[in-house]
Amino acid sequence: MRYAFADRVRHLQSSAVRDILKIVGKGDVISFAGGLPDDEMFPMKGIEEAFSRTFQSGKKSLQYAETEGYRPLREAIIERMARKGIKSYSADEMLLTTGSQQAIDLFSRIMLSPDDIVLTEDPTYLAALQVFKSYEAKVIAVDSDDDGMLPDDLEQKLKQYKPKCVYVVPTFSNPAGRVWSLERRKTLIDLVHKHNVVVFEDDPYGELQFLENETYTPLAALDDGTHVLYTSTFSKTAVPALRTGWIVGPYQVIRMMSQAKQANDLHSNSLAQQALYQLCRHFDLDGHIDHLIEVYKGRMEIMVKCLEEANVPGLKFVKPKGGMFLWLEVDESLDMAKLLPDAVSRGVAFVPGEPFYAGKPKKNTMRLNFTHATPEKIEKGITLLGELLKEVMAKQAVK
Amino acid sequence: MRYAFADRVRHLQSSAVRDILKIVGKGDVISFAGGLPDDEMFPMKGIEEAFSRTFQSGKKSLQYAETEGYRPLREAIIERMARKGIKSYSADEMLLTTGSQQAIDLFSRIMLSPDDIVLTEDPTYLAALQVFKSYEAKVIAVDSDDDGMLPDDLEQKLKQYKPKCVYVVPTFSNPAGRVWSLERRKTLIDLVHKHNVVVFEDDPYGELQFLENETYTPLAALDDGTHVLYTSTFSKTAVPALRTGWIVGPYQVIRMMSQAKQANDLHSNSLAQQALYQLCRHFDLDGHIDHLIEVYKGRMEIMVKCLEEANVPGLKFVKPKGGMFLWLEVDESLDMAKLLPDAVSRGVAFVPGEPFYAGKPKKNTMRLNFTHATPEKIEKGITLLGELLKEVMAKQAVK
Fold first, then answer.
1. Of A92, A329, B90, B124, which sees the most CB atoms within 10 A?
2. How much is the pLDDT for A25?
3. Cis peptide bond N-terminal to B218, omega within 30
4. Surface of B (4-23) touching A: CB under 8 A
5. Which residue of A has its CA nearest to B8?
6. Contact, B12 vs A263, CB < 8 A?
7. Are B243 and A62 within 8 A, CB to CB?
8. Are B65 and A241 in contact (CB under 8 A)?
9. Which residues of chain A have pLDDT under 50?
């Protein structure tokens, strides 16, 4: 039988890259591809205790629950966010979601009609691009440098395209590892107020900050609660399997998202929400995050050192100030998607940069994750990658 | 600021009924409104042990996981379904979802373009209607009697409307508590094959069967795996808070849904999936379901007895053969939505029948849940409801 799918699934194509990486997950290849935290770092004991406390609270903990999510956890998150300067929201202006991915999806579902425009950085989070496209919206890239979107280009595109929203990952962006300057953040807020557009601030990595003395103020802390939707998650700071993220924003938008969530799944796993509440209250989550930072920063530095020692001509990157990713640019002659099968057969995997681009892709780019592999594997994997790149370039030089 | 929502959210309106019932949840009102199982019946010890076993399996249990869901649980569900005669599917043709609600939503997302047609029973599951409308599809009701859809009307509407799918709850339907006859099930399968349309079989209640000697064959057991999507859930048999449902169907459709799920939330809570797998393997789930049946059947019988004793003129219902709901029809002069505030102020709540209708609503209907309230509360609540109905009718007679 021929199944008559909806028009919108034309945009839901599985990529060749994804298919290769699915195979990688099962083999002995050293993978810098996934966006995975290190399993060994998971606070298993804290999580077990948190569940145990939740079960002790009684059988009601296993019943259907509110679409908006477990209120005490929402309140605990409001407290945590206040310490980062985000103070414009109450628990009524928050929705707990199945990871921050669902926050991106629900927001898009209530906001984007076909042919609506979303402005993004370039490159930007691949799976956000997929969501926008799945609602048949159009994505327009704003020119950026290492400090964030360029104000002139942003304003010109706000005027020209009248977008529905601006999607940004201003702190330790995925994939580029960028951090926006405070000035650019303020300019963005000014411009969206001027042009009456909302910003969707995706901040899954903000807590993984490597430089103690710097401050990266979230956009949500610079706004008055009217123009910014802010999402984050416990996936990188606690554990991914509980799939618990959140979003705060203007009440009207959150309420509409809540109605969409009711249609989508009634509510997310509420046992996990209750356990995470117990974790916030009875476990030293901040101490745990400090430990994560120490370990991940160490791995990032090993990766940087190995990349420098690999001595690959034309290789460029900016040392990450936090997060989970390092973005590499190699000689313009190289197409990293085409080199992926070769790399995998030699025992190392990465994500080619191409699918992260909303505009014209730079094919000579790739994203490397430094949080999942051990230091030994990072050394070995970067050596393999460096050898491959140098060999391919040497061959090209001969031609 | 005025937020420019997408066109599709015109269909996402919170209802007055929902708002009233939200208040009910917080007070002392006896509620027959929610579709809740009884907390006291939750197998807390089994669930705790299942989580404990999962934690013992190691830290990998807390990592990101496959979009399709934990494979051993999918395999365990395949085994359970085979005992009900559903044998056309492998674990590759299954997706684990956040409750069966997400299965309805993802199916609709990949299948329904604006103005596409879905055929349904009438009345039918309210939240499915909301999903179809949220994708701007049109819902057409097929004429039905107590045995299911009427074949002539079904075939006529398959021809006339060329629908994208037929949505049915053939066993202990929500809200009407109907059970389709085997003959009507077979006819439906024949007709959808003839007209090349898929059936979406929603079966959350099938395991809560009160009459031992009857057999209700799922549509999925009558099909060859090409025309039926079948969804069910652990929410009614184990616990709702884990939000774990599943869907099986043709590989092409499941694969497309899996891609949509990746955009929607990457994957559902995988710790819950692993715990439910342990529950299936190490806990007597069938024995537990037998116990649920005994208790819920007892409550249904008390509700039926109280309704008969209430002696309300014009009151009609069919005694449920399973599931969680009893569907009441009262005198034609009564509008149950209008009577709801009165009922709540007297201390009893129900869901008015109107929003369950895809076609012209019968306003003199309501849905009563018999699984959540204790026998004492059922007696008291039905007495209150009966008094209200008789008083209102007596007043009308005076006018």
1. B124
2. 66
3. no
4. 4-9, 12-14
5. A110
6. yes
7. no
8. yes
9. none
**pLDDT per residue over A30-72, tens digit each?**
999 988 999 999 999 999 999 999 999 999 999 999 999 999 9
Cβ A256–B111 below 8 Å, yes or no? no
Upstream peptide bond of A37 is cis (omega within 30 degrees of 0): no
Q: Do A264 and B63 touch (CB under 8 A)?
A: no
CA Rg, chain A, in Å? 21
Query: What dotted CATH number matches A44-282?
Result: 3.40.640.10
Using a CB-CB cut-off of 8 Å, the residues of chain A touching B8 are 109-110, 113
H/E stretch holding B9: none
A56 touches chain B (CB under 8 A): no
Rounded Cα distance, B350 and B371, in Å? 13
pLDDT band for position B10 (cuts 50, 70, 90): confident
Mutate which of A7, A14, A40, A59 to test chain B, going by most B C-beta atoms within 10 A?
A59
Task: Tell me if B62 and A242 make a contact (CB, 8 A cut-off).
Answer: yes
Q: A168 phi and psi, to 5 degrees? A: -140, 150
Burial of A263 (0-12, 13-18, 19+ CB in 10 A): buried
Q: What is the DSSP letter of B371?
A: S
CATH architecture of the region B45-282: 3-Layer(aba) Sandwich (3.40)
What is the value of ipTM here, to two decimals? 0.96
Per-window interface: B 301-360 vs A, CB < 8 A: none
* Nearest neighbour of B3 by CB, restricted to A9, A198, A271: A198
With CA atoms as reference, the chain A residue closest to B6 would be A111
DSSP-assigned beta bridge partners for residue A95 = A247
What is residue A284's predicted lDDT score, i.e. its pLDDT? 98
CA A226 to chain B, closest CA, distance in angstroms equals 7
Beta-bridged to residue A30, according to DSSP, are A348
Residues 208-247, chain B, touching A (beta carbon < 8 A):
226-227, 235, 239-243
The one-letter code for the residue type at A57 is: S
Task: Sort strands A165-168 and A117-120 into parallel, antiparallel or unpaired.
Answer: parallel
Distance CA A257, CA A245 (A): 14
Region B286-308 average pLDDT:
98
B238: enclosing H helix or E strand: none
pLDDT of A8 reads: 86
Q: What's the average model confidence in pLDDT over B234-257?
A: 97
Residues B7-42+287-398: name the CATH superfamily: Aspartate Aminotransferase, domain 1 (3.90.1150.10)
How far does B125 lie from chain A, in Å, by closest CA? Answer: 12
Secondary structure, 3-state, chain A: CCCCCCHHHHHCCCCHHHHHHHHHCCCCCEECCCCCCCHHHCCHHHHHHHHHHHHHCCHHHHCCCCCCCCHHHHHHHHHHHHCCCCCCCCHHHEEEEEHHHHHHHHHHHHHCCCCCEEEECCCCCHHHHHHHHHCCCEEEECCEECCEECHHHHHHHHHHHCCCEEEECCECCCCCCCECCHHHHHHHHHHHHHHCCEEEEECCCCCCECCCCCCCCCHHHHCCCCCEEEEEECCCCCCCCCCEEEEECCHHHHHHHHHHHHHHHCCCCHHHHHHHHHHHHHCCHHHHHHHHHHHHHHHHHHHHHHHHHHCCCCCECCCCCECCEEEEECCCCCCHHHHHHHHHHHCEECEECHHHCCCCCCCCEEEEECCCCCHHHHHHHHHHHHHHHHHHHHHHHHC
